[in-house]
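Cont'd.
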Amino acid sequence: MSVQDLFGIELPILQAPMAGVQGSALAVAVSQAGGLGALPCAMLSPEAIRSELAAIRAGTDRPYNLNFFCHQPPAPDAAREAAWRATLGPYYREHAIDPATIAAGPGRAPFSAELADLIEAFRPPVVSFHFGLPSAELVARVKRWGARVLSSATTVDEARWLEARGVDAVIAQGLEAGGHRGMFLSADTDTQVGSFALLPQIVAAVKVPVIAAGGIADARGVRAALALGAAGVQIGTAYLLCPETTTSVLHRTAIGSDAARHTALTHLFTGRPARAIVNRLMRELGPLGANPPAFPLATAAIAPLRAAAEAAGAPDFSPLWCGQNASGCRAIPAGELTRLLAGQRGA
Amino acid sequence: MSVQDLFGIELPILQAPMAGVQGSALAVAVSQAGGLGALPCAMLSPEAIRSELAAIRAGTDRPYNLNFFCHQPPAPDAAREAAWRATLGPYYREHAIDPATIAAGPGRAPFSAELADLIEAFRPPVVSFHFGLPSAELVARVKRWGARVLSSATTVDEARWLEARGVDAVIAQGLEAGGHRGMFLSADTDTQVGSFALLPQIVAAVKVPVIAAGGIADARGVRAALALGAAGVQIGTAYLLCPETTTSVLHRTAIGSDAARHTALTHLFTGRPARAIVNRLMRELGPLGANPPAFPLATAAIAPLRAAAEAAGAPDFSPLWCGQNASGCRAIPAGELTRLLAGQRGA
């Protein structure tokens, strides 16, 4: 089944939810163009989720996707946190930051019964998860609303695990993808494979439709993914320069430069491996070096460094999320980009 | 220009040269089927190269590809070698091996004027290199014979570097590929990207034809690579079970099992990063752990461990070279596989 049939959309294009760089504006633009726009909820307060949902409802009557993380919140580990702050000590001194003043706080909340209560009234057409799935009870509740449920698989085992728990489609997240790896059955980054290897193996392993993600940047990439058996594609990086995003100027500059050709998986910004353009922090600590607190606790100690450096115009401590193929990034309206990705040249 | 036009072959399929697991038999079978068969020369003595070339000439009058490594032989480093043997010490004791009895020896010789002398009489139609290119003088000499010259690029920078030095086509080696990474401008494995990202970016960056490699396992993969702009594809892993290969039984067993879904880049077997199925040595030292001697010197100290373990039926120390997509491996004649890869179903 194609994603057009599955979601009731015109084009085989899903916009990847990208927490921190977009809100309802991008989702509305993509959905209005015939793709499936997405609202990343992981970093939004309940109030923000409600207002963003209202904005989507006001902006389009077409289907959209609400995305949530569903990690297990970690127990605080004072020793690990202290070691992490000690590792960052030279940077604090360089920026005249007193680590004692840094606020704790997770920053990213997993899906929960409270969030289900909040979104239920909106009857979201599609709900997607990252890092596996929430409890069976919560999944069943979302499905009872009539929502299609999606999640990302980074291995064949994860795809089978998701299918067994009732997802309506699996997103095959190839190693090329920007942002957080959806990996949840293994923490070993060597298990992560490129889209050319992952997609056909997942297509062969499950019966539900498979959505290709990772490295797809233009209409040729979309055609290639469909040739490999995908029911549709999910694209994030290509949208990062669109005017409907909130991508920072520093981030936009990096994406538009040769620097974007050198990304790496790093756990330094959040505690989980995610693909970003290599910057000073990644270079100096090693992208998977040091031993930051468990996701999402690593973020708090980085935040003041990021703020100080960004104020000085430096992306040294900013997570410059980006996939391995930024060649399709274009500073054009997201609706136009969506149509171009679908091969509609005269759009 | 398609590879069919470039090399005078019928199908857009190049068989990847795979040192250690194949000789002339595989090359002949693929070339006879209309693809471009390849003979890996890196681990062959001059006498063996000559006899294998004679076998190819006897077996087919169609084009074929001779492949050479072109690394800079490293200076021996006694301290590093001693540290490496110390790391392997527990394994030597476990297998009752006296490290003092281990022969040194590089095992893999780079292309040279002597090898050019040897192959000149055969006027090979295609000569390919791995790890960059030999000297400009040697490249010019090979081209004067009328041979097409190829080499692998793992980044956009490497593709441009190769084009500037006169290659007739660039092989875009995606991260998914099995065996040695062709990387030569950087030693940082984070620069290595998946085929979905690498191929279109190299296609956009160079004027010469680009051959896709890495993760392509079946006719759909071939079509996808062509959709991304490839002039043809190079496939290795899919051939590993063909009767014309010399793949060991242990290696075949691993490829045919779920173990093949977990590969990693490792430098433990040779000193350079190469993709292999994760086995005991990789698991215990870390695939890119320890600090083995520079390529190809790491091999000597592993050899007796490999021999002892293989004699006992264990692949614990064997380099189980394999790409990230072993789903297309089939124990059928290589000519038949070549036609299937090209989409000729009734072949």
